[in-house]
């Protein structure tokens, strides 16, 4: 992506991989703020020296480099973008301290509770295994349905009228959720069971800043089928 300099002439560069939900979070946040940046696609099988220098602890993407200084971890980067450019675009965190704490709590819930439960479904390669993993993931979705009702207060997003931190945290997984559903024959965000989340997902995916960076479902499906083939082959060789 060829881009101009960010506000104040500071250079912004994002190291990422095209299908990563964690990278998508950052790209959505940058888009919502209207910030320009250079994007570098990393090969995680042969990580660049820049990535290894910029994130020596975890050696993972995303990394946002702002004026030569790296910021690591997706939710940390999203908050950094919000704080570093408060006047650019809508705020991603509310101004009220309690509401900010609530948003951080639910963003952490997505990372620490929802994602691990869903990852078991993502990694499942057999029908029985998928059925069990799906059953175990549903309670986390039930909790998020209630959280959406409480956080949105009847508005369009977790953040209210506009996309906020929790929307970005959960929404970055939506394409992957749909791809896994297609392969597994599941429907995690079932509109009959979870009407709030199902409608929210459609609204989130329709936001311009989201549409511009969300990967193509067919490409993600192809990648996922490749992962499954490798996992099945590895299981068969043990």
UniProtKB/TrEMBL annotation:
GST N-terminal domain: residues covered: 10-89
Keyword Transferase (UniProt): yes
Residue ranges occupied by any GST C-terminal domain in the UniProt entry: 96-227
The protein, known as: Glutathione S-transferase
Annotated EC: 2.5.1.18
Function: Is involved in the conjugation of reduced glutathione to a wide number of exogenous and endogenous hydrophobic electrophiles.
Predominant location: cytoplasm
Alphabetized CDD domains for the sequence: GST_C_Tau (cd03185), GST_N_Tau (cd03058)
Pfam family, one: GST_N
EC top class named in words: transferase
Entry's family note: Belongs to the GST superfamily. Tau family.
Catalytic activity: RX + glutathione = an S-substituted glutathione + a halide anion + H(+)
Organism: Setaria italica
Molecular function GO labels: glutathione transferase activity
Swiss-Prot/TrEMBL keywords: Cytoplasm, Transferase
Superkingdom per UniProt: Eukaryota
